[in-house]
Amino acid sequence: MPGIAAYGAYVPKYRLGGETLGWNSAQERAVANFDEDSVTMAVAAGRDCLQGQDRGEIDGLIFASTTPPYAEKQCAAIVATALDLGRDLFTADITDVLRAGTAGLRSALDSVVAGSARRVLVIASDHRQGAPRGEIERNSGDGAAALLVANDTVIAQWEGSHSITENMLDSWRSAGDPFVRSWEDRFATEEGLERLVGEAVHGFFQKQGIAPADAAKVALYAPDARRHAQLAQKLGFHPEQVQDPLFGRLGNTGAAFTLMLLTQALAEASPDQLLMLVSYGDGSDVLAFRATPLTGRLPQKGLGLKGHLESKRV
User: Fold this and answer.
1) DSSP 64
2) Tens digits of per-residue pLDDT, 138-164?
3) Alpha-carbon distance 129 to 153, whole Å?
4) In whole angstroms, what is the distance from residue 147 CA to residue 2 CA?
5) What residues are paired with 252 via a beta bridge?
């Protein structure tokens, strides 16, 4: 069965925090430097993931982002070149929706199951911008995650998935607009986040014949810490089951957010634990992975999410 063979992450060194003039908050968020964007962060996460891996065996690369630096040019091709991958490679960009990261991961898993690819690198990266001094800016963050999907030597086996798709105008960014915008808070939370994620998670549990208590860790999407805690409780998860969302240290990294949380869950997992991934954006994707006996026996050689978080400068 296919699954995740390796993982990596990247968080920019710099943070907005208590020492930042005009920030007026003790909580921190990761912020890309002047020479960083979603592509450069994707390359850094890819390098973190591929340390010790044979790059010649990778035959697919999917780049997922809501903030690609080009409106017409494939970013996956740039990332593949920078990572020194082969030319006989399938590449694709998935963009314009917060679910882009999980959509890319699901596409890679399906490709490996179908046999059209053997090892596919999925990288989600976002450079989030909110209006100055607004809640979106305060709760957002910049960063990237990389997952290597394969059919052998996996540390986490794919257990199943479920998706809900529905047009929902709760947060958006128009073409040419640098800032993410949002609709009225109560509507966005109750009619969007809680309802659609609830339907997706309930549908997944019904399909798999399991219950919330069966999950060891859940990498759950939410725009801020308050709504994250509310959503986890409504879904029936206990606090110890929920992967730390890192609000106040990292921030919501958009399409990369749940994949970044999953990399940390993988780093801390024990064999046979069920890890869930729940994204949101015009619907919701739920994916689950079962940690294999190789978990912990194949140590990651890169810094990973934890290492990058600790390497910082406000």
Assistant:
1) E
2) 899 999 999 999 999 999 999 999 999
3) 38
4) 12
5) 140
Residue whose C-alpha is closest to residue 91's, from 111, 113, 66: 111
DSSP letter string, 185-253: HHHIIIIIIIHHHHHHHHHHHHHHT--GGG-SEEEE--SSHHHHHHHHHHTT--GGGBPP--TTTT-B-
Q: How many CA atoms within 13 Å lie on the side-chain side of 233?
A: 6
Q: Say which residue the tokens 């199943």 belong to.
A: 160
Say if residue 24 is exposed, middle or buried (CB neighbours under 10 Å; 0-12, 13-18, 19+): exposed
User: Strand, coil or helix: what is 28?
Assistant: coil
SS3 state of residue 149: strand
Distance in angstroms (rounded) separating the CA atoms of residues 197 and 242:
15
Q: Does the pLDDT at position 297 exceed 80?
A: no
Q: Name 5's Cβ contacts closer than 8 Å, sequence gap at least 6.
A: 53, 119, 148, 149, 150, 152, 153, 154, 155
Distance CA 213, CA 194 (A): 19
Whole-angstrom Cα distance, residue 143 to residue 82? Answer: 18
DSSP state of 293: T
pLDDT digits (tens, 9 = 90+) for 13-60: 999 998 998 888 888 999 999 999 999 999 999 999 999 999 999 999
Size (the chain), residues: 314
What one-character DSSP code corresponds to residue 101? H
Q: Which helix (H) or strand (E) holds 92?
A: strand 90-95
Distance of CA 226 to the CA centre of its chain: 19
